[in-house]
Amino acid sequence: MHLTLERRKWLWGYAFIAIPFLFFLAVRIGPTLYAFWVSFHQWDPIALDRPWIGLDNYRDLAQDKVFWKAMRNTWIYVLIGVPLGLSISLLIALGLQQIVRWSGFFRALYFIPYVTSLVAVGWVWRWMYMPNGLINEVLGFFGIHGNNWLGNPATAIYAIIITTVWQGLGFQVVIFLAGLESIPQDYTDAAAVDGATGWQIFRHITIPQLNPTIVFLVVTGVISNLQVFTQVRSMSSQGTGGPLNSTISIVLYVYQKAFQSLPSKMGYASAMTVVLFFIILAITVVQLKVLQRDTD
Amino acid sequence: MRDDVFRKQLDRRTALKAGAAGAAAIGASRHLGASAQDASPAAGSGFNVADLQVSGDVEIEYWQYEYASKTELVNTLIPEFEAANPGITIKHVNFPYDDFRQQVAAAVQAGEGPDVLNVYFGWIPAYVQQQFLQPLNAEWFPHEVIESDFFPMIAAGKVKEDYYALPTAVRTLALFCNMDHLGAAGKEPPTTWDELVDVAMATTQKDGDNFEVVGFTWDIGGQGHNWWREALIRQNGGLPTTEDNRTLQWTTAEAIEAFNYHVAFLTEHGVTQNGFETDGPTAFQNGKAALHVDGSYRVGTYTANAPDLNYKVVPLPANKDQASFASFWANTITRNAADGDKAIAAAKWIDFLASEDVMKRWTPAVGELPARSALAEDPDLLANEKVAPFIESLPFSYATFMVNEADLRQAVIDAYDNVTLAGLDPEAALQEAQDKIQAQLDEYWASLDA
Fold first, then answer.
1. Domain enclosing residue A150, as ranges
2. Are residues A131 and B104, on separate chains, in Cβ contact within 8 Å?
3. Is A203 within the bounds of a domain?
């Protein structure tokens, strides 16, 4: 068969895409669809039969208090963690942008937490949070009575959010810095010549110009907070999302039902992942539509 | 002076042994009726597997989690076993502890998996329900021999009329005492509930509101929940479940009183704090706790991590009765070795692993306790004074029958948290925990009875 150069190029292109596509199909899409299938069964990997139970897992889910607690907590992780992380990292990025001397050093400093193991970070913060730990000692120095931050159902989730935010800062700062650097100097210069104040420049030039960056960080931040697991597992009391389920997240609950519970409730856990999948899908679509506006 | 101390210890030990023997007799009669008490241990293992022969060469897979000293010991035991049992080959498979249940589940789902599996006792009922484990053949492993030769915790390996497991590695709970703190307060290790409170109060050190040393650790998620369930309730004259393991008894007067006794350390006596030094074992290791209830495996941890820690171990302080919690890892036969040569090979292998000889080597090599009552007074094993109190506790140590270990543990932890953090009434908190776990038990037995 005779192929034109154009057509040959085209074929090569698809051939190259085909490999990652197959890989993606096998390790992402396949298992996702399989989880849908599993969620309609009473599925215990060891049991001899795994009966089809239709929507029973979903019905049980609707009545499971712990699941709703996990759902509520997960939204707290998202709704507090994401805006808090974004505003702090934007402030730091704006500051770092001003620094000329030692800028590489400071940027590296903020990035280090991000490349540190989540579990190690979780444990160090546990030590700082414990009743006789650093944080209470510092508070005591100022005459403030301490608290068992992770052992108190009222504060545990916020203690974990602070750690998560701290750890995520490095990544967000770097992305913000890249976004800030890409804003043409002409815009700010022109605005300054027209007599705009710093705040006006920030409000009407920097923020709109940063829109794609913010969209990216919000989407990735929301997804990663919806899937929060390691921090809760390594910091919450007993690693089970306690005390009294005050820190449990959906993914941790999925893990408990699928892998820690014996008999394993794989079908039930799969039903939860399906619910989470649709939540993330819906949110991502909405975010991309609402936040992605062209700037001119 | 030295002699004095020595004599004191000796007296104590004799007294304890007498107590232990008494408790063993009580335990035995509870489980067997009087007739089994005079069953004398037979030669060898006491089981009828020595004469079994495989018809040809057979290989069985033995799975246990990765733990250096266990793996090494089993690797030296395998050639001995194979030499004594021609035709049988053991394939030893290890995997990380953290992945235990996932690994087993994944292998079984893929149509593979072990013939003989070393499992935590708390998972046995669930594996039985899943028809993953085979009952031990009662002709080869007669029940009266199991019940007379092993400590009472073996009951947790029985579902309905069948035994499913032979333990090798047992752990019990005892009281760890930091002798520097006790010495400074002029106190001896406590032996009763009241003394425990007294010593904890005397050894607590505070700087204003802040604890420097807790008199007693608050370690509910560690061993605290087990201590209440199997030790405190029984010590107080109650039983955590009915004998048939079908009905929880967590809300009896004895159980509630035992629970309140425990909670008072945190809420009334002011001798402890939740989360102090992150957890109980760490607080004790760092010398920041005077008293701490923990398992026998902790001796090895402290020897390695805190070689200079000046501590002593004594049996759990008692009240009306003496009791402790036992947990164990046991060898079970899976449905992969249901019949034929594999069944024979598997039976011979678990018999060998649970033999007196192997157990005597297991304790010094791994640090876990023997499961056979004949070894309760073994002088070699009792020579280690840190391990001796755990061995002495074996005759009155009980394992919990659990159909969902993680949920049961969480329910008890939540009961404590509900009372100490959420201000719930103890009886209501225990009732809530009991209702949740009782529902699981009911469901479990319904599925087995069906």
1. 65-291
2. no
3. yes
